[in-house]
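Quick question about two entries, pasted in order.
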Amino acid sequence: MPIVGRIYLRADRDVKVGEDISIYELFGREELQKEFNVESDIELDKTRLKVTVEKLGAIECIADAIKRKGAKASIWNIMKYKDMSSKIKATQEVKKGENLSVTIEAV
C-alpha cells in the first residue's frame, strides 16, 4: 500500500485500553490541522485511505481532497468530519500529551 503521509500528533486526553474514541476526540482540531508532505497522489472521492493511529488502530475512509505528491496536507483536509468522528477501540493506554504516530496509506 502506498504511503500518503506520516505525522506525529499530540494526544489531547487520556484513553484507557478498550475505550472507544475518535481521531477528532483524541487530537482535536488544532492537532489535526498540522501539515505533512504528501508522498503519493490522492483523488477526491476516489482514493480509499487507511489511517492508522499508534496505540489505537486503524479506520478506512475515502479521500476528501485532491492532493499531489510533494504537496502539503493535513488530516483535517483529507478526511471527512464523519470519518474523523468514527470510533476506534484503543489497543493500548494513551496519556494526554503523548505524541502518537499517524500513518495514512492508500489502499
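Here is the second entry:
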Amino acid sequence: MPEDHEKLVADALRAQATSSGAHPHTPAKPPRPSLGAGWVLLLAVLLGLAAGTVVAVITLR
C-alpha cells in the first residue's frame, strides 16, 4: 500500500512540474573535455627530467 502512495505522489509532482511552465527546459552546455591522462603523464615526465637535471648539475659541481 505505501508503494501506491509514493507512486501517486511522484506522479502528481511530475505532472505539476511539467504543466506549470515555470521552469522551461534549457539544455545544459556540454562539459568541456577534461585534461587527458596522456598530457598529465607527459607533464610528469618533463618535470621529472627537469628535476633530475637540476640534481645532476648540483651534484657534479
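Reply: The chain has a mean pLDDT of 82. The two ends are 83 Å apart (CA to CA). Hope that helps.
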